[in-house]
Amino acid sequence: PTTNLDALLSDLNGLDLITEPNQVAKLSQDYYHFSPVLTPQLKDKVGDVVIRPANEAEVLRVAQACVNYKIPLTVRGAGTGNYGQCIPLAGGVILDMTRMSAVKWMKPGLACVEPGAKLAAIDKQTRDIGWEIRMAPSTYRTATIGGFVGGGSGGIGSVTYGQLRDRGNLLAVRVVTMEDQPRAIELRGDDVYKVAHAYGTNGIITELEIPLAPAYPWTEIIVSFSDFMSAAQFGQTLSDADGMIKKLVCICPDPIPKYFAALKSYLPEGTHCAFLMISETCLEPLNEFVKDFKGTIVYQKSAQDASRGAAIAEYSWNHTTLHARSVDPTITYLQTLFPDDKNLQLLEHMYHHFGDEVMMHLEFLRYGGTARPASLQLVRYSTEERLNEIIKYHESKGAYIFNPHTYLIEDGGMKMVDTAQLQFKQKVDPYGLLNPGKMRAWLEKDGK
Ligand code: FAD
């Protein structure tokens, strides 16, 4: 049991606290169960108490109490992360940010929001002035902006705007520190990356300034192809097409469309499908691309009907995995960036090499100024050894894997220590209380 918990709770009397064990257990979880490797490591981890601050002053109060009693604090948005990012490894306080959900101000191209604002809720307000979030995960309806910046990377919109890590996609953050005397500081410019994708180990984000994109009338379209490489080449060509306004270019080859029950009547058996979000104004030129690659438009929903029926964005990115797992829970996934090769040779090789064991699923994104295929392949899981073999094979051939089967920040994507993040943590969290156990550099510094 966490020592001094009662003292902490009495200091925080008056705040919105949850101590009922079932609720606390529920709010200690995320979507780590997509990984059969993480499941046994994380399934029993729980916090001691959930605290739901209403404003920054309350966050400062909680931070002070945690520092006083040396109790760990793990920040939580909506808990939709896939790598156990918000799972408390050492108990303590779970700081649920969902009550801090205001859009504080907005103007053309820019908004200032609280971290607990859901991405879809932000769009709902900014669209009134003709703007929207530049990119969002497929969990857009439930995920928070603080959680996306703290633990996410990119998604719908990334085909045009790149990823969160690209300069210009996050302008400023306010963070509460866990020093002897916690304070709120503002980070701008490259300093934002001290806390972005740091899994809440480097401060509690209480406010963010985010750039916006023009909100086009997005049409949702599915195009089917009779062979995989035509679908993939169509995706690459469309993603590279400068005149085409696009938000999503996702390729789900056969047999993946079989997992999409609600769309079944539209998706011809045995075909390879492209899921697209395109500005309505680009429909005519889209037809030319479809013709070039001998595709067939099998589904179309106008921007006006966007809120009705299935949203195709919720079949893309890691929702593809979600639907497949709802049919076959033994399926897991990988995250891969393929090289900048317009002929897609390595991708074609992997498609044939692994066959049905590693089902290709492509998400095109802009990376370093050019469109590249990323893949969230669906893997028919057998053993951890085999999974690692699959990863090693990809890496040996020049595909970059962002491993989703680890909860350590460095081991997932960067593969190396981020010195700026480590130094910042030494300053703002000297007792290592923020989400302990997630930053390898910090663990190794302590010789653990
Ligand atoms: P949480 O899971 O609650 O938290 C994520 C991390 O951020 C945690 O480490 C937490 O401690 C930290 N954090 C939360 N709030 C704060 C704060 N205020 N200050 C500091 N740190 C904070 N991700 C993508 O990037 N792209 C995708 O397309 C995508 N698709 C997904 C599809 C499915 C079906 C699922 C289950 C997940 C997907 N994800 C995707 C992962 C996840 O949904 C997103 O990253 C999402 O943005 C996380 O938001 P959240 O509010 O749920 O964050």
Describe the structure concisely:
The protein is of the alpha+beta class. Helix content is 29%, strand content 22%. The strands form four sheets. An eight-stranded antiparallel sheet has the order 14-11-13-12-18-19-16-21. Strands 5, 6, 7, 8, 9 and 10 form a six-stranded antiparallel sheet that branches. A four-stranded mixed sheet has the order 1-2-4-3.
Question: Can you walk through the features of this model?
Answer:
- The protein is of the alpha+beta class.
- The protein is built from 15 helices and 21 strands.
- The two termini are 21 Å apart.
- The protein is globular.
- The model has no long low-confidence stretch (mean pLDDT 96).
- Strand 5 (103-107) and strand 6 form a beta hairpin.
- The chain has three domains: 5-96, 2-Layer Sandwich (Uridine Diphospho-n-acetylenolpyruvylglucosamine Reductase, domain 2), CATH 3.30.43; 103-214 and 412-445, Uridine Diphospho-n-acetylenolpyruvylglucosamine Reductase, domain 3; 218-401, Vanillyl-alcohol Oxidase, Chain A, domain 3 (3-Layer(aba) Sandwich), CATH 3.40.462.40.
- It has an eight-stranded antiparallel β-sheet. Strands 5, 6, 7, 8, 9 and 10 form a six-stranded antiparallel β-sheet that branches. A four-stranded mixed β-sheet has the order 1-2-4-3.
- The structure holds flavin-adenine dinucleotide.
- The site of flavin-adenine dinucleotide (FAD) has 38 residues, from strand 3, helix 6, strand 10 and helix 10.
